[in-house]
Amino acid sequence: MTTTIIDGLYYANKIINEIKTKVDKLKIKPKLVVILVGNDNASQIYVNNKQKRCLEVGIMSEVLHFDENINQTELLDIIKQLNEDTEVNAILVQMPLPKHINPDKIVEAISPVKDVDGFHPYNVGKLALNMTPYSIACTPSGILKLLNAYNIKINGKHVVIIGRSNIVGRPLMSLLLNNNATVTVCHSKTENLKEITNTADILISAVGKSNFINSAFVKHNVCIIDVGINRDKNNKITGDVDFNDIFDKCSFITPVPKGVGPMTIAMLLQNTLNLYDIQNKK
Ligand code: NAD
User: Fold this and answer.
1) Residues in CB range of 234: below 8 A, 6 or more apart
2) Is CATH 3.40.50.720 the classification given to domain 137-261?
């Protein structure tokens, strides 16, 4: 049996190039506004990266950076202004927020039609009901694109997702169910995890722990999607999966880096363009 390494970087670049071609033809460019609160190092890196990629494809990107002492009411007012600003097509609030701000209230304040992350309850609800949301969370959409790009059969297959976060596990569950998978979602309270993962045709890990999944967790021929982005003891970026240990047992596997990560950013650009299109059709 041969194992195919899923090239997320290749497909992300392909999508990004397609977006660039479309944006080049637009007289008025789409605009994404990113709200960053406080000085969390990782968040700043993510935000800079998002801005850089937007500029590369011609999407206008503005970062509104606020002191960590900004209060919730002030932040809600800013979101209200952005919702009303016709030049702004997409709004992203970088998480995590300082403890005195309720992230649910902030997510709910964003207009669903400008919700580029697909986190608003309106969009999450539409996805769960297999209706058409304005946007779908970026990491799950990126994973679906990769499965489709490699013609990996989803219909009727048992997909086991480890992790039930609002940004990965839950929207992914809905998206794959809508694509006719039989979906099992596991989490930190799941009993007999290994027995469940051993029945997976596709195993998707979004736990956040290096080397959490090894060959004992899977059956032969499994497709592995590794969402984790972690640092090992040598500060090297790793996924959740022990790649070398599991490799020979898989039919497909995403590497970390260059697997799911680049697709997430490509989907952010795609969502921005989609929201622009929706707003300009009204
Ligand atoms: P999270 O901390 O919100 O969720 C982790 C999930 O793992 C939880 O649902 C928890 O129940 C589950 N879990 C923890 N320990 C477990 C155990 N022992 N057994 C079974 N389940 C367990 O994290 P998140 O935001 O969903 O992110 C998960 C990982 O994915 C992180 O490494 C994060 O950096 C990465 N991530 C990557 C991308 C990407 O684009 N590649 C995007 C988002 C998140």
Assistant:
1) none
2) yes
Task: Enter the pTM of the model.
Answer: 0.98
**Dihedral in degrees, nearest 10, Cα atoms 193, 199, 202, 206:** 0
Tell me the average confidence (pLDDT) per consecutive run of 10 residues in the chain, 282 residues long: 95 98 98 97 93 97 97 98 98 97 98 98 98 98 98 98 98 98 99 98 98 98 97 91 98 98 97 98 74
Q: Is 50 a catalytic residue?
A: yes
- Which of 7, 31, 115, 117 is catalytic? The answer is 117
CA distances from 149 to 12, 183, 252 (A): 11, 20, 12
From-to residues of CATH 3.40.50.720 in the chain: 137-261
Determine if ligand 1 sits within 6 Å of the CB of residue 230.
yes
Distance 163 CA to ligand 1 centre (A): 5
**Nearest protein CA to atom 39 of ligand 1, as residue:** 261
Residue tagged active-site, from 7, 31, 50, 115 = 50
Ligand 1 midpoint to CA 46 (Å): 17
**Residue 117 appears among annotated catalytic residues:** yes
CATH architecture group of domain 28-111: 3-Layer(aba) Sandwich (3.40)
Compute the distance from residue 123 Cα to the ligand 1 centre, in Å: 21
Residue 211 is predicted with a pLDDT of 94
